[in-house]
Amino acid sequence: MALSGNQKRQMRSAARLFAVQALYQMEMSDRTVEAVVREFEDHRFGEVFDDYEMAEGDPDTFKALMDGAVTDQARIDQMTDRALVAKWPIARIDPTLRALFRAAGAELVGRDTPPKVVITEFVDVARAFFPDGKEAKFVNAVLDHMAREAKPEAF
């Protein structure tokens, strides 16, 4: 069965959320990228919790974000540091936000996704993790700065 454009978009969106969760898990557990990717693909995509079925993530997007976040972590963290206020280096921010910036940074530097799409998608991910907070606005500002550095020609 062929997937519609909307289904493909939803799967890419789910893959972004899963990448943030997986990067967070890697940081908290010191597990390898290979082990975490395998766990998510085998157990998390399409998982059911109390009658709520998790979305199917797009495996290609998920793998690309995970590989890019790990391979380009130093570059992405430096971009993030430049986008943050000087008093708040990436090491001092919430680990969920750190994982989000790494996943988004991987998409900005390693994929052809338009930067405005990356920003919108990851602001939505921030809202999923912090539904009542100001984090979404913070994420928007940091990612806008990172996107202008990574892909200035898009602005």
Short synopsis of the structure:
This protein has 155 residues and is an all-alpha fold. The chain has helices at residues 5-29, 33-44, 59-71, 73-83, 95-110, 115-129, 135-150, and strands at 48-49, 52-53.
* Number of extended strands: 2
What is the N-to-C succession of helices and strands? Answer: HHEEHHHHH
Main pleated sheet: 2 strands, antiparallel
- How large is the share of residues in beta strands? under 5%
Task: Assign the CATH class.
Answer: Mainly Alpha
Average of pLDDT: 89
CATH third-level topology: N-utilizing Substance Protein B Homolog, Chain A
Number of domain units: 1
Mind telling me which CATH architecture this is?
Answer: Orthogonal Bundle
What distinguishing features does this structure have?
155 residues; mainly alpha; N-utilizing Substance Protein B Homolog, Chain A; two-stranded antiparallel ribbon; 7 helices; 70% helix; 3% strand
